[in-house]
Amino acid sequence: MNVIDKFIKDVIAKEGGYTNNPDDKGGPTNWGITKDVAYAHGYRGDMAEFTRSEAEAIYKEEFWLKPKFDRIALIDESMAEMLLNFGVLAGQQTASKMLQRALNVLNHNGVDYPDIKADGNIGPITIHAVDIFVGKRGSEGKKVLRGMLAAQFSVHLMECAERNPKNEEFQYGWQLNRVIGAFL
Description:
The structure is a single chain. Helix content is 66%, strand content 2%. By secondary structure, it is mostly helical. Strands 1-2 form a two-stranded antiparallel ribbon. Strand 1 and strand 2 form a beta hairpin. The protein is globular.
């Protein structure tokens, strides 16, 4: 099993099967894929009938290749897995922006590499910055960067519940399965 297939299997295990919780703004969801996302990819059926293989294809294209997390995996697979998980729950641009923000405060005021526009789009500049950072800091640097990602994501999830109290229902599980239990 290649790395993305393993990551997708893990995401689906966390997401589970069909749900239509009225407190979840995503609406009808199956395998962690919302109706809106499934329909954007051409699906037109009942979400209760949405197949795991259809979900896997969307995860690979929309949540792995499109945001270029596959390129981050070439440098650090664990970091790419975090970005995938965060992207599934909070959006790929949000996850990417968290990475860019962390890189910007780790560049020694632009000495190691220039600041990156934290626009949530991973391109050659962001990938180059990760590569330079990891090249300078090694495995210890990877841990620091992953810790900074986890901290930002934890706070992001807390803020989701502060903005919308209905999200408090999901907070414990999000923190346990997406942040603490998954990466720390």
